């Protein structure tokens, strides 16, 4: 015979399992709250809400006992638990789970990306590798032209002339020969195209400033955390760390190792936005 009264271990989560006090009764609302109300109506039972003392679903201690909702059920203080109990191998050893009725996708959130600092805006049109290549090409052209293009020019003078050609200045004291003209024309083409591309990209940046790069995937997040650029916090008492650890995906395993080493966590349901 189905019991007339059931004790339900739960935590208060807005929009999922929200507790409302109506008179001397506690009425639940939200997606899982409505499910509980439906079960109570169809199976004709009353329920008593037993809140998790630490506001967590449950983590296992080294001695085998549990805290949170799992601990309440294991100790006999509650008959079953809600809401959104994640099923894991450890929890499956301590509890009997119902058939799954919902699936959750795991994601991460970051603070909205800020604009790139404008103090170094002049460097943004090209990538770092492009700038390095451009500088090396300019130095190589200065050395080469000093030897075979210019007449009686010092290395400094050759460098200044090459640099001037980038900003549309004329080049003087040039030795005349067909193959030298080909070499000079090649450089002048580069000296014309590169500033043109720079101006286009720079104007685009001024019109619509770029945002700082932030992780978009878990692999990018793992790389950012391992490099020390980001911290990654997981909710206390959830299965997030276990899911990462048991994924057998190298970058996820490395990510959770850093999280556990630094004990990065936050209370579920609290204003984690303030931590970003």
TrEMBL record:
InterPro entries assigned: Glu/Gly-bd (IPR019594), Insect_Ionotropic_Sensory_Rcpt (IPR052192)
Name listed for the protein in its UniProt record: Ionotropic glutamate receptor L-glutamate and glycine-binding domain-containing protein
Lineage: Eukaryota, Metazoa, Ecdysozoa, Arthropoda, Chelicerata
The gene coding this protein: AVEN_140320_1
Keywords: Cell membrane, Glycoprotein, Ion channel, Ion transport, Ligand-gated ion channel, Membrane, Receptor, Transmembrane, Transmembrane helix, Transport
GO MF term set: ligand-gated monoatomic ion channel activity
Transmembrane segments: 131-149, 183-206
Residue runs in coiled coils: none
Keyword DNA repair: no
Localization terms from the record: Cell membrane
Entry GO CC: plasma membrane
Membrane topology: Multi-pass membrane protein
């Amino acid at each position: 015979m189905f019991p007339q009264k059931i004790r339900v271990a739960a935590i208060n989560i807005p929009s999922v399992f929200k507790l409302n006090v109506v008179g001397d009764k506690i009425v639940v609302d939200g997606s899982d709250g409505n499910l509980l109300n439906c079960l109570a109506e169809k199976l004709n039972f009353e329920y008593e809400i037993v809140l998790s003392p630490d506001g967590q679903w449950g983590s296992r201690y080294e001695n085998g006992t549990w805290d949170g909702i799992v601990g309440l059920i294991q100790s006999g203080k509650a008959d079953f638990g809600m809401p959104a109990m994640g099923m894991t191998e450890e929890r499956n050893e301590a509890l009997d789970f119902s058939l799954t009725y919902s699936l959750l996708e795991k994601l991460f959130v970051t603070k909205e990306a800020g604009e790139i600092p404008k103090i170094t805006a002049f460097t943004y049109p090209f990538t770092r590798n492009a700038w390095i290549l451009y500088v090396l090409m300019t130095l190589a052209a200065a050395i080469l032209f000093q030897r075979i293009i210019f007449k009686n020019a010092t290395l400094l003078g050759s460098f200044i002339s090459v640099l001037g050609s980038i900003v549309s200045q004329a080049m003087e004291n040039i030795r005349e020969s067909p193959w030298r003209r080909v070499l000079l024309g090649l450089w002048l083409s580069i000296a014309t195209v590169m500033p043109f591309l720079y101006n286009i990209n720079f104007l685009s940046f001024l019109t619509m400033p770029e945002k700082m790069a932030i992780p978009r995937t878990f692999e990018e997040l793992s790389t950012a955390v391992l490099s020390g650029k980001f911290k990654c916090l997981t909710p206390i008492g959830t299965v997030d760390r276990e899911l990462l650890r048991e994924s057998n995906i190298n970058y996820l395993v490395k990510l959770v190792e850093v999280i556990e080493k630094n004990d990065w966590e936050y209370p579920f349901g609290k204003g984690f936005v303030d931590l970003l």
